[in-house]
Structures are given as structure tokens and as C-alpha cells.
Amino acid sequence: MATPANRRQLGQQVEQAAARWLETQGLALIASNQHAKGGEIDLIMRDGENLVFVEVRHRRRSDYGHPAETITPAKQRRIVKAARFYLHAHGLSCPCRFDVVGVTGSLPALEFDWIRAAFDAY
């Protein structure tokens, strides 16, 4: 069984791989692992005029469901709260969206499923 430190390291590697993959899709990385009171944003990227807050979810296999299915309404609220904090802290006012990247497989053979505008701020 993986230790918490190993899981955290794997999570960071998967997030970095997702960021590189999104860059090949035309997005630009602005920041990663942004912590705010009550939440964290895995990746913050720019897609044209849009600032994109990206949640990365990984499962080795999808036998028990797609990784994106693990993002509950409560998790969405925490991400939105963290995004609002980020926007306020950086004095930003721009179009935003919330994307999810579901990642399956094991390093280095990962598959990415990008869901644009996966949920809205409310």
C-alpha cells in the first residue's frame, strides 16, 4: 500500500503531466497547487481570454467509475471558493471557467479526458 507521501508525490507527477498535456492543447500554465482557505486549485491556466481553474483527478483504472465522477458538489464549492480567493488576491476580473481532467493509467502511460466547463460557479 502506498504511503501518504508516495500518494502525494504521485499526485504531483500526474498534475504535472496533465499540465504538460493541456499545454499541447493550447493552454498556458499560470500556476499550480494554489491553496486558499478551505480549498486548493490544482492548475490555473489561460485559454485565450479565459482563466481556467483545472481540477485533476487520477485513477489507475476506471472499473469503479471515471475519475471525474469523484468531484462532489462539496468539492466543487471548495474549488469555486479557492478560485474567488485567487481572483481577489490577484486583483483579477476576467472570464473564468472550471475544467476537469480525468486521468487514467499509470506513469508514464497516462490517458487524459478533458472536460471543459465541467461545472459552474454558484
From TrEMBL:
GO MF term set = nucleic acid binding
> Superkingdom of the source?
Bacteria
Q: Name the InterPro entries on file.
A: Restrct_endonuc-II-like, tRNA_endonuc-like_dom_sf, UPF0102_YraN-like
Q: Where is the signal peptide?
A: none
Q: Pfam families this protein is in?
A: UPF0102
Q: Which protein family is named in the record?
A: Belongs to the UPF0102 family.
> Which HAMAP family does the UniProt entry name for this protein?
UPF0102
Identify this protein by name.
UPF0102 protein F0A16_03630
- Say which species the protein is native to: Salinicola corii
- Which lineage do the record's taxonomy fields give for this organism? Bacteria, Pseudomonadati, Pseudomonadota, Gammaproteobacteria, Oceanospirillales
